[in-house]
Design goal:
Layout: H1 8-12, E1 20-25, H2 39-54, E2 59-61, H3 84-99, E3 105-110, H4 116-126, E4 134-139, H5 145-151, H6 164-173, E5 193-194, E6 197-198, H7 203-206, H8 220-243
Parallel strand pairs: 1-2, 1-3, 3-4
Antiparallel strand pairs: 5-6
Helix pairs in contact: 2-6, 2-8, 3-4, 6-8
């Protein structure tokens, strides 16, 4: 079920506590010389739509939030950004709209690294006012970390930026948007941590051309494998969220 394709009457008839509302959140920002600025929006939307297609009776999918927290890309240009406090407030407003309408299970499905911290703040901010609801937030690849590591060939065994992972996914989902002649090894990535302590450095400081890893190892075949594997694992995860108990007390969650 897709929120924006249904009438208010059909939405009113949805079983509020037995349906998971998936809210895809992404970004529009520079993705190096070979990838489109809408990469995160395109990939997150495609994954969310594939999950909804398999669970059409239990999932309500909202339109993808295309604007993200992307200040760390601004110095490279070609980036649309939401300030952190604005972004957190926007996510809270979306969640509040759904929760006040009676929906009990919400998942922010993220497709952009810069959204991770603010989306977690948003659900933490909302939870005290709606303790009876299930509020979840995670990146679409998080449920498949081991699978992603096993599939990627380069030394960067994680989801980076216009990297082997994202380039492979785009070569599967929207290959016509990838400039293959611009694909190259990104070179060394400057660290953002020291002895486990976070160092706040933007992408202009950390990368040579605004992307990471080994997109030169990407392929459409690898992208198809990653896409299908992630969707399969997300479907399983969504079913788990749908079976999670709802409650406000410890006793509601233990036998």
């Amino acid at each position: 079920m897709r929120f924006h394709e249904l009438t208010s009457g059909r939405l009113a008839a949805i079983d509020r506590d037995q349906t998971l509302v998936i809210i895809p959140i992404a970004a529009v920002e520079q993705h190096g010389p070979h990838m489109p600025t809408g990469t995160d929006f395109i990939l997150c939307s495609a994954v969310a739509e594939a999950v909804e297609a398999q669970l059409v009776e239990r999932v309500l999918l909202t339109p993808t939030v295309w604007l993200g927290a992307s200040a760390h890309h601004l110095r490279l240009g070609s980036t649309l950004n939401s300030a952190l406090d604005t972004y957190i407030a926007t996510l809270c407003d979306i969640a509040r709209s759904l929760l006040d309408d009676g929906y009990q299970r919400l998942l922010f499905l993220n497709g952009h690294g810069g959204n991770i911290d603010p989306m977690r703040v948003a659900v933490r901010e909302m939870q005290p006012a709606y303790p009876e609801a299930l509020l979840a937030a995670g990146s679409y690849w998080a449920v498949a970390d081991e699978f992603v590591r096993e599939t990627l060939e380069g030394a960067h065994k994680y989801v980076g930026h216009a990297c082997e992972f994202e380039t492979s996914m785009m070569l599967h989902v929207r290959p016509e948007l990838v400039l293959r002649d611009k694909i190259a090894d990104a070179g060394k990535l400057v660290t953002d941590s020291l002895n486990g302590v976070f160092l706040s450095r933007d992408m202009y400081q950390r990368t040579r051309q605004g992307y990471t890893g080994r997109p030169d190892l990407a392929s459409a075949t690898k992208g198809k494998l990653l896409f299908s594997g992630i969707v399969e694992r997300l479907v399983s995860f969504v079913n788990k969220l749908l079976s999670e108990p709802l409650g406000t007390e410890y006793s509601d969650f233990v036998g």
